[in-house]
Specification:
binds magnesium ion, single chain, seven-stranded mixed β-sheet, alpha+beta, six-stranded mixed β-sheet, binds adenosine monophosphate
Length: 445
């Protein structure tokens, strides 16, 4: 029986990609045991599989432009008005009519009026050798076709002396030169960054249609976990992942969190939450309990709800046991419990799929180029993500990286000191000083 049989009717907002789900692993005991063997699939394949099963939210909402920062545009927007809406001065200076000035300079003109931004000087009725005092953003008086910068003329009483004649159109911003009416301004999946909001505001829009926020469920699994503020018993540790992942999500203006708190390592408790999550979330993120140990119940609890996995093991460190799949209609991302592994797998594997659900066009991490300032030996075929600190810059501004917490992927301290994460590629065994690496900043702004 296929992994999907029985829940086809649930595929409304998030119908998974058929081809990918046909390769999904139904969660039987034998499959799960088999899936934990081997080295795992390459990181980029894991990301592609996760993105392929993610389905973009369908619901659209109209919200005030003032509240739209970072949201995802639902559809194309065409220009309703041209920009600028009228010919206007690009400088503080004097509007002139070039046709009325010929021969050799300097030219002497009388100043016959004044136009500040927001005012309209008709320009009609003025004498040929007249200039109009004009300020940046003011509408060009009709018939006037150039602006002499105030720095390029000499004012003597109510007259100006112009040494160099501007070309026709010089220092004038023409109606429609930036945006023509009906121009495509932006499209579905564009994120409403501040500069894009500026363009929409320039069109006079006070509301905008965006995709509704992605609802991200979050479960911290682990019987050893206590939340900060609670007393800590022997053998227990504080829950670091919950606040860390919530913090990463709070930087996502297109997402909202459904926090289930801590669930102990019991199949029935996990299964209950997994059964409930599809009613409230578009994606469920869990941390912990995805390794092959007998106290790792996440995968078998998923099986209780006909869940299926497309990613069972990834050739990466940290984060090898990360699981990606579906519970009914929603995406499932089972991150390992070690906080560094949770951070890396959330950003590298889960986030591209979640960004796809959000409807964003750009889904991958923001890599920049940096330079290794350390040496390190690693295993061939495995991608490693290591915490790094920027110790300086080369002459072209590229960061020079120092690796932190060498060897201990469980160090909270190393990650907290890190400026970012460096990716050590699978085809390299020996990282030498000077090697170019991909670097992702961990600072939010
Ligand atoms: P697991 O993935 O459940 O095998 O957990 C791996 C390691 O991460 C164990 O040492 C756990 O105690 C630890 N761990 C799991 N969840 C959390 C969490 N939410 N916060 C801090 N450490 C955790
Ligand atoms: Mg555990």
């Amino acid at each position: 029986m296929s992994a999907q049989a029985g829940f086809d009717h649930l595929f409304h907002t998030l119908a998974p990609n058929r081809a990918d789900m046909e390769n999904a692993v139904p969660l039987t005991n034998e499959n799960c045991a088999a899936a934990t063997e081997g080295r795992g699939i390459p990181v980029d394949i894991a990301v592609a599989k996760a993105v392929a099963i993610a389905r973009t939210v369908a619901e659209i909402e109209r919200i005030p432009l003032m509240d739209a920062a970072g949201r995802v545009l639902a559809g194309e927007i065409n220009a309703a008005i041209e920009l600028p809406p009228f010919d206007n001065s690009a400088m503080d200076g004097y509007a002139i009519r070039t046709a009325h000035l010929s021969g050799a300079g300097p030219w002497e003109l009388s100043v016959g009026g004044r136009a500040a931004a927001g005012e309209v000087h008709a320009g009609r009725g003025s004498r040929p050798k007249e200039a109009i005092r004009i300020f940046t953003g003011a509408a060009m008086p009709s018939g006037f076709d150039a602006v002499v910068m105030q720095e390029h003329c000499e004012r003597v009483g109510d007259r100006i002396l112009v040494a160099r004649l501007p070309r026709r159109g010089e220092n004038v911003r023409h109606a429609g030169e930036d945006v023509r009416a009906w121009n495509l301004l932006m499209g579905a999946g564009d994120q409403l960054l501040p500069q894009r909001l500026a363009l929409l505001a320039g069109q006079g829009l006070d509301t905008v249609e965006v995709l509704r926020k992605v609802r991200i469920g979050l479960i911290s699994t682990g019987s050893e976990l206590r939340d900060p503020g609670e007393p800590l018993g022997r053998g227990q540790i504080y829950n670091s992942n919950r606040v860390m992942i919530r913090a990463m999500m709070s930087g996502l203006p297109w997402a909202e969190i459904v926090d289930y708190g801590i669930i102990p390592d019991r199949r029935d408790a996990l299964a209950e939450a997994f059964g409930e999550a599809p009613r409230r979330c578009d994606v469920l993120v869990t941390t912990g309990g995805v390794s092959a140990g007998e106290e790792d119940h996440v995968v078998s609890a998923l099986g209780c709800h006909g869940g299926s996995l497309v990613v069972l093991k990834v050739a990466m460190r940290p984060g090898k046991p990360v699981k990606i799949g579906m519970i009914g209609p929603i995406l499932f991302a089972g991150l390992p419990g070690n906080p560094n592994a949770a951070l890396v797998t959330f950003r590298q594997i889960a986030l591209p799929a979640i960004r796809t659900i959000a409807g964003l066009r750009r889904v991958g991490p923001d890599w920049s180029t940096a330079i290794a300032g350390f040496t390190y030996e690693k295993r061939l075929g495995r991608t490693e993500f290591v915490p790094v600190r920027i110790t300086g810059r080369d002459e072209s501004g590229r960061p020079l990286l120092e690796m932190l917490g060498r060897g201990s992927s469980a160090s909270l301290m190393a990650m907290s000191l890190a400026d970012g994460i460096a990716m050590l590629p699978p085809d390299v065994v020996s990282i030498e000083r000077g090697l170019l690496l991909s670097f992702e900043s961990l600072s939010s702004n």
